[in-house]
Design a protein that fits this description.
This protein has 14 helices and 3 strands. It is mainly alpha-helical. The chain folds into 2 domains: 11-168, Ribonuclease III domain (Ribonuclease iii, N-terminal Endonuclease Domain, Chain A, Orthogonal Bundle); 178-250, Double Stranded RNA Binding Domain. A 3-stranded antiparallel β-sheet has the order 1-2-3.
Length: 257
């Protein structure tokens, strides 16, 4: 009897069961604000789960609100942090910070993936690691915080989570070709050419790549991503950041020909 009942769960019951199967308190601690279960559950419900269970409400409406909260919060902070920058600089800086990549970075920092309610298809294809799903769910969380606690609370969460990105904003941001940027920087410093060494783990359909970028004998940056290309870009970005603070580590070390 209990088995047949299990197969006849309504959509709402399946949602409640899936939501209760994960302890969400660590996520709320990392966000730094409490959310009622109704708001949190909706924010975490991806359309793939909703559609598989009788077309339940999903998080896309909250995502719409969260996108607006995020955009205004970041724009205002950039306006304050960089008073001498023209609009032509501020707009791409904002775009880079609130991009899919920027949001996915934050999602990984707060370990959002395990909390998302996904349908079987997305679950099977690594949906918890997809930048698009991580980014959209992060925006939905901001929308939920706004709905329950108001704009000020939501803005404060955004600014705290994005503080490092705001403090180190660049005009090109994540969309920059960091490998080219690194190459140019190394040339300026008369340093050896960058060499990338990548490894991967996991099955063919769900590999995770780790890339180290070496300048001479030393690794100056490491990146992790779902493809070799993305891992190398992340490694190059971290190397560029390292060289901003420690140019002397590689300056003038290129071999004379």
């Amino acid at each position: 009897m209990s088995r047949s009942r299990k197969h006849k769960l309504s959509g709402e019951e399946a949602l409640a069961q899936a939501f209760a199967a994960v302890d969400h308190s660590p996520l709320l601690e990392r966000i730094g604000v409490q959310l009622d279960d109704d708001y949190l559950r909706l924010a975490l419900t991806h359309r793939s789960f909703a559609n598989e269970h009788g077309h339940l409400p999903n998080n896309e409406r909250l995502e719409f609100l969260g996108d607006a909260v995020l955009g205004l919060s970041v724009a205002t902070k950039l306006f304050e942090l960089y008073p001498s920058r023209p609009e032509s600089d501020l707009s791409p800086m904002r775009a880079a910070i609130v991009s899919r990549y920027g949001l996915a970075d934050i999602a990984r920092e707060i370990d959002l993936g395990p909390h998302i309610l996904l349908g079987k298809g997305e679950e099977a294809t690594g949906g918890r690691k997809k930048d698009s799903i991580l980014a959209d769910t992060t925006e939905a969380l901001f929308g939920a915080i706004y709905r329950q606690h108001g704009f000020t609370a939501a803005r404060d969460v955004v600014l705290r989570l994005f503080d490092d990105k705001l403090q180190h904003a660049t005009v090109s941001g994540k969309h920059k070709d960091w490998k080219t940027e690194l190459q140019e920087r190394l040339a300026e410093l008369k340093a050896p050419l960058a060499e990338y060494r990548a490894t991967s783990v996991g099955p063919d359909h769900d590999k995770t790549f780790t890339s180290d970028v070496f300048v001479g004998e030393e690794s100056r940056g490491r990146g992790v991503g779902p493809s070799k290309k993305l891992a190398e870009q992340e490694a190059a970005r971290n190397a560029v950041r390292f060289l901003r603070d420690h140019p002397e580590a590689v300056a003038g070390t290129a071999k004379e020909h």
